[in-house]
Design a protein that fits this description.
Elements (H helix, E strand, L loop, with lengths): L1 H24 L4 H18 L5 E2 L2 E2 L6 H23 L3 H23 L4 H28 L4 H28 L1 H20 L2
Antiparallel strand pairs: 1-2
Helix pairs in contact: 1-2, 3-4, 3-5, 4-5, 4-6, 5-6
Length: 200
């Protein structure tokens, strides 16, 4: 996210400098030489603002301040899971990272439809999601370092194990959020079976 902000600022500065050069080239009046580059800088900065999006959910479309706050907290972590996960060569780690990313999206989409369940997901967002992203970053650093050794291999194995544990935690979180729907399905099937029996 910090890199995105730096890139956005650089683009805006370049746009402002280009506008400044053009105003000087065309020998515009002093107020125009000042105002046009500032306007271009602000315009480029606003247009290049990244869209915070988790799966099909855009932050701008999300209802409720609590949900917006959760999305902001989770956005960077989910972005790490997807972008870093896709770069990893090890199939097992890459698959786990992308599985965690997909599970995270499913949880957020469910929360958007069921905002009353947001309280149940706080620990998931503040701890589990953050831990998953952190482990993946640490794994990537180990790979980039190209350092070999028993302790490094042990650390990689520990990270793989941690990501495996987290996939179970994500699944359990989703199941907990879906509990009401699961019970409704069970009830619907029981009613259907009873109806069929009564018609025999």
């Amino acid at each position: 996210m910090k890199n995105n902000e730096l890139l956005r600022t650089i683009k805006s500065l370049l746009g402002g400098l280009a506008a400044f050069a053009l105003t000087l080239f065309f020998a515009m009046p002093l107020p125009m030489i000042i105002l046009i580059p500032i306007a271009v800088y602000v315009g480029v900065y606003m247009v290049s603002k990244p869209v915070i999006k988790i799966g099909s959910l855009k932050l701008s479309d999300v209802k409720g301040e609590e949900m917006k706050s959760l999305m902001k907290d989770a956005y960077e972590d989910l972005e790490v899971l997807e972008t870093t996960g896709r770069k990893i060569q090890d199939n097992s780690v890459r698959e786990l990272a992308l599985q965690l990313y997909q599970s995270g999206i499913s949880i957020f989409e469910h929360l958007q439809k069921n905002p009353d369940k947001i309280g149940l997901a706080r620990r998931f967002i503040n701890y589990y999601l953050d831990t998953a992203a952190s482990l993946l970053i640490k794994y990537q650093k180990l790979i980039i370092s190209r350092v070999k050794g028993e302790s490094v291999e042990k650390a990689k194995a520990d990270i793989l194990n941690g990501l495996t544990v987290l996939t179970k935690a994500f699944d359990q979180q989703y199941e907990r959020l879906m509990q009401g729907e699961i019970m409704d399905i069970t009830t619907d099937v029981k009613v259907l079976e009873q109806t069929l029996r009564s018609e025999e």
